[in-house]
Amino acid sequence: MSHARLLFQQFPLLAEKLPWMQLADLPTPVQRLPHLGQHLGMSDLWIKRDDLDSKLYSGNKPRKFEFIFADVKRQGCTGILTIGSAGSNHGAATTLFCCREGLQPTLALVPQPVLSYVRQNIFINYCRQAQFMFAPNDPVNVLNVMRFYLTKKIKGEPAPYFMYFGGSSLLGNVGFVEAGLELAEQIKRGEMPLPKYLFVTTGSCGSHAGLLVGLRLARLPIEVIGVRIVPKIVTNRHVVALHANRTAAFLHRLDPSFPRLHYRAAEINLIENFYGGQYGRPTEEGKAAIRLFRETENQALDPTYTGKTFAAMLAFIKRRRLTREPVLYWQTLNTVDLSAYTAGRSPEELPPPLRHYFTEPLYDPEL
């Protein structure tokens, strides 16, 4: 168990101090994208297939959940409360892993545009008996969560474990420190060349920050480029640097042999003009990227996260006129078929705050 992850192999003391349980199928493969590369005139375009890291719900959550869910069990909590948009992937992932681990999921939700994947996630959460809290916007959502925990404390009732949105806590970020080490090992084994650029979706910042720490730990000179898909007040260079610094300092406190690492906001590479003005709002560039990736490589992207990230990467490649420099796209999307979780159920069962997502027209019928 202590050597099940590369981070523990390098720093055995962390294996004694960090909560961990195996939830992800690692390592995930790195693969060349030959057809898209040919289309773009690139010889070294690659993908890191984190959409293959779990048969329950894949993407970037299982890596984070390995540490977070172990902490839940260590603290003896019987449920998890997390925040997000009404049909967030993070919410659906939390619900499904909670159900498998015998935990009660509670989701504090805010509205978002009506898209088909949003409908699916909402319905899955309902069918898997998640509990819901609703708010009209993020500030009210935070206040509701604070009120919820205060009420529990006053009544002397056990409270669920709180998970920050996206799973981007100190423990969750460690999952992507491990991811950086995993990539370094694959490069060392010759599974792919050393990429000059690595593109990753930056939402709650944990994946981006963890990769920065892991890759510097491995001494790999890879330029990590995040693509912002949430409001700037939530995600910016300062927040990414803060997450990276706090994660590195956390690991150093647990094991003094873990090197002291520091990141300045000016070092963080973040593309910010592909957000689209509203969380979850599809963009024309993102939709074009989704179509291109499907047509060339028969692989999926989504309009909220990965499609925008992929669109930013395509624009970067075109603007820099890249042809030979190795470029790696880190896939963070779930591609597991989830239809079985809602088979035989009707959206008419949903409570009114969620039912309207099925009665209102889709924001973008193309998607």
Mean pLDDT across residues: 96
Query: How are helices and strands ordered from N to C?
Result: HHEHEHEHEHEHEHEHEHEHHEH
- Which structural class is indicated by helix and strand composition? alpha/beta
Largest sheet: 6 strands, mixed
The quaternary organization reads as: single chain
User: Rg, please?
Assistant: 20 Å
What's the β-strand tally?
Answer: 10
Low-confidence stretches: none
Neighbour order of strands in the largest sheet: 1-2-10-7-8-9
Tally of separate helices = 13
N-to-C span = 43 Å
Helix content: 40-55%
Percent strand equals 5-15%
Shape, please? globular
Question: Can you walk me through this structure?
Answer:
The strands form two sheets. This protein has a six-stranded mixed β-sheet with strand order 1-2-10-7-8-9, sandwiched between helices. A four-stranded parallel β-sheet has the order 5-4-3-6, with helices on both faces. The protein is 44% helix and 13% strand. It contains 13 helices and ten strands. Helix 8 (170-188) packs across helix 9 (206-217) and helix 9 packs across helix 10. It has 367 residues and is α/β, with parallel strands linked by helices.
Summarize the structure.
The protein is an alpha/beta fold and 367 residues long.
